[in-house]
Amino acid sequence: MLLEHVAGSEDLDPLVLSFFEDEGIDLVRIGEEGLAASAIAPKSYSSVPLSEDCISRAMAEVVNADRFPLLVMDLYGKHRTGVVVACLRKLQRWSLSAVWHLCSP
Questions:
Q1: What is the pLDDT tens value at each position of the chain, 105 positions in all?
Q2: Could you write out the DSSP letters of every residue in 7-67?
Q3: Of 28, 59, 69, 100, which has the fewest CB atoms closer than 10 Å, so is most exposed?
Q4: CB of 75 within 8 A of CB of 88?
């Protein structure tokens, strides 16, 4: 597998990108179109809610067995990762109380 050089990868550490490329790790960036390139500062970016389309695209990647093993991460904080993992757990038929309990700090 080759690293996908996608728009916005310039905000990742070059060593991380090099590691991904050396190890054949695919990088898939999923986010709100135009948000990363806008004037929104990283701290305020983390407070922008995810759209349904963004979650749908993330779920399509997360449930794709061809992508395993998989790392889900958020460059600007932890909340987006928690939302994606919570949605995955609901797809796996976890109860809402279990999803909430394990996703909350």
A1: 333 444 455 567 888 888 888 888 888 888 755 554 444 445 555 566 778 888 898 899 999 998 888 888 777 666 788 888 889 999 999 998 888 876 666
A2: TTGGGS-HHHHHHHHHHT--------TTTTTSS--HHHHTTSPPPHHHHHHHHHHHT-GGG
A3: 69
A4: no
